[in-house]
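step=encode ok
step=design start
structure_in=
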């Protein structure tokens, strides 16, 4: 009797494609699955025949093309991008589309050396960067408006960009292209049902000119969406870019403010930690004014919880910190502690997010807020038990 060795569906698809002479191609932004392992993710970059996949846990895993299967997917959530309306250049552009990821970058490489601006004098006016994100409400006859999304180069710089949306902590590539200097570009459009599903817009920008120019660092900007604020006409403002009122966000200004805030926060956090280590005994004291405790403090920094953490992954570190958080909170509730402060630091915000998610789901009756900025900076959360 002939025995047939079992083969999973994904490998069977690749085998059949090979017989047909079909070669599977991969692009940045493709959603893929692993053939020899569970899970998958989004391709963030490609080097030769190796793709780097960002998983839902936020980790980047390299894998050869031969071990990947592309997941058929059209755009994000069934949304179809709006057509590009050229605002300045009349030059026809070839477009590419890979599973909903739109491209308007020309296939040909432009020679920037032969230009009349090679001898242009660099001044403050022609070297200042100003990139703007615009959300413009469009009346459709429905109760709720749709919104067009524009990127605007309000300066003398051209801009290469990628535009993605985040849903359920997953990033979906939406568009890639170029915006000419002093030009606005229609990127895409969304209705309110789509807006309600999206957590944020992710925008990556690279800036350049023809000829001589003062370079600027690339910008990676994330715009958090608030559906209620977006639909509220009070959020729309008169502006210099559109005839109608719109939501205007200066990406360059917001990125600079965020960078300054991040630097200040990190400095303050280091200062606070150093001060607390100097002033606090090895065994942390709990403030007591009566027979019950008024305040308890728990430091969730991993170096306070275990001596050997160098070999731990990010996920394992989070698990240890959350375990300590749960044990400390349950103990505080049993011991009638009125308030408990969890020092989680700033970092990338993952630990604070998990703490707030746990409080919201398991302890809906407990109140919580950011702890004293003077004492802890941005890196602590206070839970009020009584």
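sequence_out=
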């Amino acid at each position: 009797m002939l025995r047939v060795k079992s083969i999973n569906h994904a490998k069977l698809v690749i085998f059949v494609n090979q017989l047909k002479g079909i070669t599977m191609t991969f692009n940045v932004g493709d959603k893929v699955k692993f053939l020899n392992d569970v899970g998958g993710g989004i391709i963030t970059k490609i080097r030769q025949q190796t793709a780097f996949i960002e998983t839902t846990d936020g980790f980047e895993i390299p894998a050869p093309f031969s071990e990947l299967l592309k997941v058929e997917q059209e755009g994000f959530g069934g949304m179809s991008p709006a057509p590009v309306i050229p605002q300045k250049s009349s030059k026809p552009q070839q477009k590419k589309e890979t599973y909903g990821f739109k491209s308007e970058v020309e296939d040909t490489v432009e020679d920037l050396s032969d230009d009349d601006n090679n001898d242009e004098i660099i001044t403050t006016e022609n070297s200042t960067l100003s990139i703007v994100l615009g959300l413009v409400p469009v009346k459709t006859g429905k109760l709720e408006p749709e919104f067009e999304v524009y990127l605007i180069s309000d300066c003398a710089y051209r801009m290469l960009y990628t535009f993605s949306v985040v849903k359920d902590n997953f990033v979906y590539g939406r568009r890639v292209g170029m915006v000419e200097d002093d030009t606005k570009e229609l990127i895409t459009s969304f209705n309110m049902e789509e807006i309600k599903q999206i957590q944020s817009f992710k925008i990556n920008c690279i800036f350049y000119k023809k000829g001589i120019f003062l370079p600027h660092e690339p910008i990676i900007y994330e715009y958090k969406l608030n559906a209620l604020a977006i639909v509220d006409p009070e959020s729309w403002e008169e502006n210099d870019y559109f005839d109608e009122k719109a939501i205007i966000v200066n990406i360059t200004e917001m990125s600079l403010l965020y960078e300054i805030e991040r630097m200040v926060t990190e400095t303050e956090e280091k200062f606070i930690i150093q001060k607390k280590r100097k002033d606090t005994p090895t065994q942390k004291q709990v403030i007591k004014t009566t027979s019950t405790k008024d305040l308890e403090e728990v430091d969730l920094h991993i170096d306070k919880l275990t001596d050997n953490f160098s070999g731990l992954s990010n996920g394992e570190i989070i698990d240890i910190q959350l375990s300590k958080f749960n044990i400390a909170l349950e103990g505080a509730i049993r011991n009638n502690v009125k308030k408990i402060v969890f020092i989680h630091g700033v970092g990338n915000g993952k630990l604070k997010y998990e703490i707030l998610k746990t409080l919201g789901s398991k302890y809906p009756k407990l109140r919580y807020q950011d702890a004293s900025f003077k004492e802890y900076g941005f890196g602590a959360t206070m839970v009020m038990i009584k």
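step=design ok
step=annotate ok -> The chain has nine helices and 20 strands.
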